[in-house]
Design a protein that fits this description.
The complex is a heterodimer of chains A (about 100) and B (about 475). By secondary structure, chain A is mainly alpha-helical. Chain A is about 40% helix and about 5% strand. In chain B, about 40% of the residues lie in helices and about 15% in strands. Classes of the chains: A mainly alpha (about 100), B alpha/beta (about 475).
């Protein structure tokens, strides 16, 4: 199935990805060709087949909900990874407004 | 024999007997990187000083009789989507350019605890999305057998580095074939363990339901040593399985070993010379006492479609974290929203954006049932078919890839042609079983890989069969001329 220009723009908006005008046609083309290929599954009769949730039969893994501190070096590395940092705070653009 | 081409077993014996030191091994690998990496671009970061220090520490331990075992002093490389403090972890993406690893992945903790020497990080397709290592933001890797050719992907850097003698073992990740396919194309052994056997903690998530870490090694015997080091349940990866589920049984010879040959794997699209090479290997297996039986995996023709729905859907969710806020590239923009859009638009390459968009579409309202749910149903069928096909045999056999390494750029603009090269590998991830790719000869002067697939948690059986084949043949000893 072929995606329209508008559909690509809509998913790009949902995915929070900027797509430039010059890329739009190529994305439209290539995503459509993949959708066309994977569309073959829709012709299968899968009545009564349960969808897979997990392949290796692992069941719920539970643990106590408690805070574990990390070592100061790891903490500092995590803080340093932030693009904009003020003290120990992560600095972002205004969320409201 | 050059030190940098030794197996782990040989190197470990040499270190033990005092024939050479870890510093010598490490220096040999560093020299080799220095000599050929300019042409291959297999390694994206070398931490020479740190590696030599680790090697020295290993030699000192040994001299005091305190060796940590087989891996103590063995130089290894790590794929660049696995965190190792003291290196950058870029996952081949511009969005993580310069990102300094914040903690050690569980597999890296295990490597360090065993005394392995970390040499640096290897190149890869961006976020492991690709079959040729051409989508890396840091330039393509070239195949040491012929530098006009791709090394396979996405762990092409690890495969090329090992094949070219830059390390004795390398880590990769395999979501749809990303260890086995480059291993096949570079003529080394590549192993994808059972889903859940090796912790993924610290590996950058691509598609969580098939992602798996595994080793590249010169022999199946070395791969087994590596698995022994890497495996184990990890509280930090809730999908890792309990060790009591492992089946330790492994054949030591091919006599009486039953190998299933899925008839659907020998129909269309395979290169003739690759097929001839695979059939020769099948004849060799028979001569060595293995029994080949026909089996069937009827859903094979849908496997790629299943994978190319499940994977982008999971990718679109996993890559939502790259928002320019907590880590990585952040594009300057006037508002929060524009920061998200520009960061992700500029930071992700074209193939990554394509897959995120595809996954977003397939998961969006009104399409979930038609794509994701439908794919998960076919996945159930595939699991049943694999269980049935594997029930009367010790393992299954297939080519690893329908062709040998292709020219750089050849399939770059045609996603379907690129995806088709994963036909023999994706099912293994979809159903979560272990599989190894071992070299089985050359076609057009380039390596061909034979894939052996086992039952869940029977990793040892698969590697045992591969080892028995390698002990009786010498395909795995072939090396590129470079």
């Amino acid at each position: 199935m072929a995606l329209s220009r508008e559909e690509v723009l809509k998913i790009a908006k949902l995915a929070h990805i900027e797509v430039t005008e010059s890329e739009l046609a190529a994305f439209q083309d290539k995503i459509s060709s993949v959708l066309e290929y994977v569309g073959q599954l829709q012709e299968l009769d899968l009545k009564g087949v349960e969808p897979t949730a997990h392949v290796s039969g692992v069941t719920n893994v539970l643990r106590t909900d408690e805070v574990k501190s990390c070592d100061p070096e790891t903490r500092e590395r995590l803080l340093n990874a932030m693009p904009a940092r003020e003290g120990d705070y992560l600095k972002v653009k205004a969320i409201f407004g | 024999m050059a030190l940098n081409y030794l197996t782990i077993k040989e190197a470990s014996a040499g270190l033990k007997s005092g024939e050479f030191k870890s510093v010598d091994l490490t220096q040999a690998c560093l020299d080799r990187i220095q000599a050929v990496n300019g042409e291959l671009n297999a390694v994206v970061e070398v931490i020479a000083n740190s590696a030599l220090k680790e090697a020295q520490a290993s030699d000192e331990r040994r001299s005091m009789g305190k060796s940590l075992g087989v891996f103590d002093g063995i130089p290894v490389l790590v794929k660049d989507n696995i965190q190792a403090v003291g290196t950058r972890t870029t996952a081949g993406s511009k969005i993580l350019a310069g990102y300094a690893s914040t903690y050690d992945a569980t597999v890296v903790v295990k490597l360090r605890a065993a005394g392995a020497v970390i040499l640096g990080k290897t190149n890869m397709d961006e976020f492991a999305m690709g079959s040729s290592t051409e989508t890396s933001a840091y330039g393509p890797t070239r195949n040491p057998w012929n530098t006009k050719k791709i090394p396979g992907g996405s762990s092409g850097g690890s495969a090329a580095a090992l094949a070219a003698g830059m390390c004795l073992m390398a880590l990769g990740t395999d979501t749809g074939g990303s260890i086995r396919q480059p291993a096949s194309m570079c003529g080394v052994t590549g192993f994808k363990p059972t889903y859940g056997r090796v912790s993924r903690y610290g590996a950058i998530s691509m598609a969580s339901s098939p992602d798996q870490i595994g080793p590249f090694a010169r022999t199946a015997e070395d791969a087994r040593l590596a698995l022994g080091l890497l495996e184990g349940q990890d509280p930090l990866d809730s999908t890792s399985a309990e060790a009591k589920r492992y089946v330790w049984e492994a054949p030591t010879s091919l006599k009486g070993v039953k190998i299933g040959v899925p008839k659907e794997y020998f129909v269309v699209g395979m290169d003739e010379e690759v097929e001839r090479t695979i059939r020769q290997a099948m004849a060799q297996l028979k001569e060595l006492g293995a029994e080949l039986v026909d089996v069937s995996l009827p859903s094979t023709r849908h496997a790629l479609a299943v994978y190319y729905i499940l994977m982008p859907c999971e990718v679109s969710a996993n890559l939502a974290r790259y928002d320019g806020m907590r880590f990585g590239y952040s594009a300057p923009a006037p508002t929060l929203h524009e920061t998200y859009f520009k960061t992700r638009g500029e930071g992700f390459g074209a193939e990554v954006r394509r897959r995120v968009l595809l996954g977003t579409y397939a998961l969006s309202s009104g399409y979930y049932d038609a794509y994701y749910l439908q794919a998960q149903k076919v996945r159930t069928r595939m699991c049943q078919e694999f269980t049935a096909a594997l029930s009367g045999v010790d393992c299954l056999l297939s080519p690893t890839s329908p062709s040998v390494a292709w020219d750089l750029g050849e399939k770059f603009d045609d996603p379907i042609a690129m995806y088709l090269s994963d036909i023999y590998t994706v099912s293994v991830n979809v159903v979560g079983v272990p599989a190894v790719s071992i070299p089985c000869g050359l076609a057009q002067g380039l390596p061909v890989g034979l894939q052996l697939i086992g039952r869940q948690f029977e990793d040892d059986r698969v590697l045992g069969i591969a080892r028995a084949f390698q002990e009786a043949t010498d395909h795995h000893a072939a090396r590129p001329m470079m």
